[in-house]
Design brief:
alpha/beta; 8-stranded parallel beta sheet; single chain; Arginase, Chain A; 8 strands; 34% helix
């Protein structure tokens, strides 16, 4: 196993949707022992505290929820992600999934500076491929994939100078996709794998094929892990629960395969809402999954009673 230099970066961001609580996510992951879990595997781990948004002026909600605050976070996170990914493997501890507006934009800029393509593995119940014009809810945590691929309509947001190519994106675990997103994705080259495909054929085959493409392209890999990728029976601490998600073993297999590939260069952990958790078990599960992505194996795992 390769020893990595890992930067933990807290993102107490709660502007991407109306239901509050994700701002507590970074501290829940700290309390659940993320730093220790990674350090015990031999990695060099530094916690850089929490990012703050760029200055902004609050305004009353219109059709969109908290757009100015979300734009401010996008500016700040783009800069942090671009800088951190040049020297380490940054782990962005969210925070709602709108943080990926900034993190993916930042690592895409860093990849372009290095002359290498960026690939994105999106582990989520949702595609988050909306634009501000198509989202019915007005919640901007449903728009990151639309934004970073260069879709139009993100007025006021930082310009996307290095869009992520659609053929470089794989979405696994889908089970809640709006009609507008579905129609747009069906016209794209995005790899999307819903839970029926996983039920029928397993999760390893499509993931292995995607990782092989990253390797052949000498690409950098950003992984964005949403709590709702998992079934809510095992990960209840999320405000966007959709039954029928990945099992604990399917999720660990994904992380173990990512580790085996040695390809991951940055990671989001998003939508953890400790206010909705049960005795911290979702936070602990997320820590265990991240540990699997960085080399923990079955025989390394402590036995816990919840």
């Amino acid at each position: 196993m390769e020893v990595r230099t890992i930067d933990l970066i807290g993102v107490p961001m709660d502007s991407g949707k109306r239901r509050q609580g994700c701002l507590m996510g970074p501290d829940a992951l700290r309390t659940a022992g993320l730093h220790r879990a990674l350090a015990d595997l031999g990695h060099t781990v530094s916690d850089h505290g929490n990012v703050s948004p760029a200055p902004f002026t609050e305004e009353a909600d219109g059709r969109l929820h908290a757009p100015q605050e979300t734009i401010a976070w996008t500016h700040a996170l783009s800069d942090v992600a671009q800088s951190a990914s040049a020297t380490s493997v940054p782990i962005f501890m969210g925070g709602d999934h709108a943080l990926a507006l900034g993190t993916v934009r930042g690592v895409a800029n860093a990849a372009a500076q290095r002359g290498r393509p960026l690939f994105v593995l999106w582990l989520d119940a949702h595609t988050d491929y909306h634009t501000p014009a198509t989202t019915a809810s007005g919640n901007l945590h449903g728009t990151p994939m639309g934004y970073v691929t260069g879709r139009r309509g993100f007025d006021g947001f930082p310009q996307i100078t290095h869009p992520v190519q659609h053929e470089n994106i794989a979405m696994l675990g889908l089970r809640s996709v709006d009609a507008e997103e579905r129609a747009a994705l069906e016209q794209s080259d995005v790899t999307y794998v819903d839970m029926r495909q996983i039920d029928e054929h397993g999760i390893a085959k499509p993931l292995a094929a995607f990782l092989d493409r990253v390797t052949k392209a000498n690409g950098l890999l950003h992984v964005s892990l949403d709590v709702d990728f998992l079934d809510p029976s095992v990960a209840p601490a999320v405000g966007t629960t959709v039954p029928g998600g990945a099992t604990i073993r399917e999720a660990h297999l994904v992380m173990e395969m990512i580790c085996d590939s040695g390809l991951m260069t940055s990671l989001d952990i998003v939508e953890l809402n400790p206010f909705l958790d049960e005795r911290g078990r979702t936070a602990q599960l997320m820590v265990d999954l991240v540990a699997s992505a960085f080399g923990r194996r079955i025989f390394d795992r402590p036995t816990r009673a919840y």
